[in-house]
Every structure is written in C-alpha cells, then in structure tokens.
Amino acid sequence: MQKARENIRVQWFIVAVAVILFVIKMTAWYLTNSVAVLTDGLESIVNVLSGFIGLYSLYLSAKPKDENHPYGHGKVEFISAGIEGTLITLAGLYIIVEAVQSFIDPEPLQSLDLGIILIGISAVINFGFGYWAYQTGKKNDSLALQASGRHLQTDTYTTLGIIAGLILIRFTNILWLDGAVAIVFALMIIHMGFRILRAAVAGIMDETDEELLAELIAYLQQNRDPKWIDLHNLRITKYGPTLHVDAHLTLPWYLTVKEAHAELDNIEELITHKFGDRIDIFIHTDFCQEFSCYLCTIEDCEVRQHPFEQRIEWTVENVASDGKHRLSRSV
C-alpha cells in the first residue's frame, strides 16, 4: 500500500506539471505561430489527458482483491498505458497533417527568441519530472507510472530538437524548416506511442516476460533442493505491480502431505525473498514416477528403482514446458 500511495502522489505531481507545461507551450505557439511549437503543445494536451487517466488507473490498481476481482485490479494499468499510447499516436498523426498544411500555405514566424526561452524552460521541467516518475514506477513496478515518465522524457528530447530547429530558422529565415522539424518529431512521437501501446497489449494478453522468467528460473536452479525433482509448467503473469507465479513441482511420492507442504513453503519463501511481497504464488505438486529415478539426485532414497544417471539443469525451455522432466532413454 505504501508503494501505491507513492505512485499516486507522483502521478498527481505529473498531472499538475502537465497542465503548467501545456499553458507555457501554447503561449509559445501563440507568440511564434510555429507548427513545430504546436507539435510540442499538442503533445502536452496528451500529457494532461493521459496524466488523469494514469491517476485513475493507479487509484484502481491500488485497491485490494475482492470477490469480483480475485486477482486484484492491477491490469487496469495496461488499459491506461494503451489509451496513452493511442492518444500519443493520434497526436503525432495530427501534427503531420498540420505540418503538411504549413508547406502548402506558409505563414511568417515571430517572437522566436521568447518562444525558444519558454520551450527551453518546459524541457528542463519535463525531463526532471519524467526521470522522477520513471524511476519511481520502475522501483514500484508500476507500468502506468513508467509510461508517464517515459512519455515526459521523450517529450523532452523532442522539445530539444524543436528548439534546435527554431534556432536554425531564427538565423537562416528558411520557413519550410518549421514544417520539416514538425514532421520529424511527429514521427518520433508516433514511434513512442506504438511502443507504449505494444507494451500495454502484451500485458493484457499475458505475454511472457522472457527476461523475468529467465531470472526466476536461474535463481531457483541455483538454490534448488534435491527433493525438488523437477519444476515444469512455470508461468508468470503481471497484474500491475503484482506477479502471479504458478508451476508444477515434482516431489518424491512417499512424502506425507505435511512434508510436501513444507517443501512448497520452502520454495515460496525462496521466491518471496528474491522478489518481495509483490509475488502471488500457486504451486501444484506432482509425485515422481519410475522414469524420475534416472534424474533424481536424492542420495539416500530407499525406494529408488533405477540408478541416477544425469541431473537436468532447469532452463526456460524445460521449466516453462508442460511435462515432467525425463531422460530420452527413460521414455
């Protein structure tokens, strides 16, 4: 809950800053009549809208599990990020339309010096708050906050590019550069929107986080107990900041229910020690069979039917697959 409150507090700051920056950028556009500056201003509209959407999603994702949402409300963050990515993409497309129009019917620019100063101030503010939001979201495993921070930081880079373009126009008086700069950065904005949208769809579709899965399996392999004969059908699903892990663990068939439960407690404690209390774990136990003897490393097993031959190292391929581990000769 403490992380959730921190996420919401940071998002409130982002919303307030987004409103202030929108006013600054639109003032700069009014003074300069620059399509490139309008690019920055329109992106700030998206910042304001997505800021409120992100705030609402963080509020929902912080709510505890209930009867209607047994896995919590965390997936709303993926929806929030998806809406933000869509808005960013649409803003980029609109900017291209305005830039093309500026080529057809160019208008003189004015007050460029003041406009450059105002846009420069917004760039500094944007980067600082974007960095803070992204790092907080990364620390607290909030996709919505990371998306907001990444958006603000990217907005800073586009702003710097626009400033460079305005300075070039200021000294060359080549007016068509205004539209060209706007198109270049509109394409960057569209690319960023697609990336955020892609991450959101991946979360909604429960796409496997290969890096996280490999990290967990390597950690379990490093700390595995001889009684954990094999681990398979392991899956990780993200619901906002919460990770749901489920797997099948093969144990010696002669363990009592109490002893098997103790082994589950051990592996759950191991995972929680690594990833913290954001983990929700469900492990199904399987009993070993005759073919398991070939790869079982228990030295004092009194019911072994075949001698040990080879230990199978746990990898993403064999732990994520649905099937007990076995040597090819024991099929």
Automatic annotation (TrEMBL):
Residues 13-204 form the Cation efflux protein transmembrane domain. One of its GO terms (molecular function) is ferrous iron transmembrane transporter activity. Keywords: Membrane, Transmembrane, Transmembrane helix, Transport. The keyword Acyltransferase does not apply. It is found in: Membrane. The keyword Ribonucleoprotein does not apply. SUPFAM superfamilies: Cation efflux protein cytoplasmic domain-like, Cation efflux protein transmembrane domain-like. Signal peptide: none annotated. GO terms for cellular component: plasma membrane. It comes from the Bacteria. Residues 209-286 form the Cation efflux protein cytoplasmic domain. GO terms for biological process: intracellular zinc ion homeostasis. It is a multi-pass membrane protein. The chain crosses the membrane at residues 12-32, 44-62, 83-104, 116-134. Belongs to the cation diffusion facilitator (CDF) transporter (TC 2.A.4) family. This is Cation diffusion facilitator family transporter. It comes from Gracilimonas sediminicola.
